[in-house]
Design goal:
Number of domains: 2
Number of strands: 12
CATH superfamily of the largest domain: Vaccinia Virus protein VP39
CATH topology of the largest domain: Rossmann fold
Number of helices: 6
Radius of gyration: 21 Å
Distance between the termini: 33 Å
Structural class: alpha/beta
Shape: globular
CATH class of the largest domain: Alpha Beta
Helix content: 25-40%
Strand content: 15-25%
Largest sheet: 12 strands, mixed
Length: 285
């Protein structure tokens, strides 16, 4: 395989019979049941990509290019990775174009997605089958992914077998966000739902925080109105609304310099009802 970072054949097995896989004549063979798995570029395909998927484009990330939510995701992930030993093996589920790869590039890592992006090593829907050895992973990342999973409980239960004892799932999940990557956007989960999911799947929650951005909520609402609500308006109504929106956007920017800056807080101790999203860490019991 092309991933020089880790030997995939030490980590993955045939999901049908759980036997060893090997590379022969540019094909992936099960040494027991003889099933053949296709390759697409650098990736092994264990499941076919969803027919309805709208593949993500490669986006430039970094300072000044990301939202406050994405910046908070990066700070959270960096903090969690510092708690891992350098020989830890990380699986990035829903890795896409490798948006968070720069944070864990010094660790042993595998990138997984349901679509064969150039950066991906394994193409698999983990709610359908599991090609990983039991207790083979130290940490799993779900960074802005869980809302795109139709059966999040099935996914978390599948991951439970892959993790080593006390292994972790590091999660960022948006809450106040428009429908995106349609039609594969299935839910927004509250902290109550996340706590319930963790318990049902057999995890304890070692970390849970809400990310709150009141000014960001205002600005996002103004963007929604500008790009969607105004689309069907006549010329005069649109010009009037544009003038009002410009005034409101100026006021929203002024609010950013007050005490209403983005902040992190235990969502169970915060009465503000609209978190941008949540960061949490699940630990295998």
């Amino acid at each position: 395989m092309e991933n020089k970072n880790v030997d995939l054949f030490k980590i993955i097995v045939c999901p049908q019979c759980h036997s060893l896989l090997s590379l022969k004549n540019a094909q992936i063979h099960c040494e027991k049941c003889r099933k053949i798995y296709k390759k697409d570029g650098n990736a092994i395909l264990f499941t076919e990509p969803p027919a309805a998927i709208n593949p993500s484009e490669l986006r430039e990330r970094g300072a000044g290019k990301d939202t406050a939510w994405r910046n908070a995701n990066g700070a959270f992930l960096k903090e969690q990775l510092q708690q891992l030993t350098k020989d830890s093996l990380i699986l990035d589920v829903g890795a896409g174009r490798g948006d968070f790869l720069s944070f864990y590039t010094d660790f042993l890592h595998i990138l997984l997605d349901v679509y064969p992006y150039p950066e991906v090593d394994v193409v698999c829907d983990l709610t359908q089958l599991n090609p990983f050895r039991d207790a083979s992973l130290d940490a799993i990342l779900l960074m802005n992914v869980l809302e795109h999973v139709a059966s999040p409980l099935d996914l978390l239960r599948s991951m439970h077998t892959m993790l080593k004892p006390h292994g972790r799932i590091i999660i960022a999940i948006p809450f106040y966000l428009k429908i995106h990557q349609a039609p594969l956007d299935f839910q927004r989960l509250t902290h109550f739902a996340l706590r319930d999911l963790a318990a049902q799947a057999g995890y304890s929650i070692s970390h849970l925080e809400g990310f709150y951005d009141p000014c960001g909520v205002i600005q996002e609402s103004l963007r929604y109105y500008r790009f969607w609500a105004m689309a069907e308006q006549g010329w005069f109504a649109r010009k009037f609304d544009q003038a009002v929106l410009l005034h409101m956007q100026t006021l929203a920017k002024l609010l950013q310099h007050t005490s209403t800056k983005p902040y992190l807080k235990d969502p169970f101790k915060n009465e503000y009802p609209a978190p941008t999203g949540y960061h949490l860490v699940l630990e295998k019991d």
